[in-house]
Amino acid sequence: MDSKGNLRRGIGGIDEAGRGPMFGPLVVCGVLANGKAIAALKELGVRDSKTLSTRQRERMEQSIRGCIQSAEYVIISASEIDRRRQNRVTLNEMEVGAFVDVAKRIAPTELYLDAADVNSDRFGKVIGERSGLLKRGCKIVSEHQADERYTIVAAASILAKVRRDSEIARLHERYGNFGSGYPSDPKSIRYLERMLEENRELPTFIRSTWKSVSKRIEAKGSMQSTLED
Question: What angle do CA 8, 11, 15 make, to 5 degrees?
């Protein structure tokens, strides 16, 4: 918003990357652009980040930044996710807070959201009310798979994924290559199981409250108790 609290003329889109992994942060990104810029993004081939390779996303990032008015991020680390979950804050609630923060910062006159709630309309209403955008006349569209339908959300999706990938790359440099961090990644599973086998303290980039992690910690504890008995 400007210094008087008015909305900024433009169309906004918000999406996230890293909701499901066992390792690494959750990244929420919001972008603001005008109609002409969105048409240019479409011509560049901007689309849902999941349909693009890592290299394609990285190449597209600079082109996106050259078109949009602004980009805003909220990054929630794995340790912060664990801390909040231990305080009974759900991931959905964390995402709502992050989306609200980003929505306030980009403050568009029209906003498109990739809904992080089973009820997409409810999600949009909550973001609109808590950010104050609805009261200021912002049009809000909240849908599942919005990154597949709206170029502005696809742009946010790409920037969020590139930012998360860069965070993961930094963690690889420090802790070794543990893969993508997703439960479906065999390399990530092997990394976690090796650390547990060696009785090493889990680094803070591992979401210890995640079911795919906690069940292995519990299994390791049960096995240790059996051996000691």
Answer: 115
pLDDT in tens, 207-226: 999 999 999 998 876 545 43
d(CA 208, CA 224): 18
Phi and psi at 227, nearest 5°, equal: -65, -40
pLDDT per residue as tens digits for the range 32-48 = 999 999 999 999 999 98
What SS3 state is found at 119? coil
pTM of the predicted structure, to 2 decimals: 0.92
Buried b or exposed e, range 51-90, using 16+ CB within 10 angstroms:
ebeeeebeebbebbeebbbbbbbbbbebeebbebbeeeee
Domains, the chain, in order of start with CATH, read 8-172 (3.30.420.10), 174-222 (1.10.10.460)
Is the model's pLDDT at 129 over the cut of 70? yes
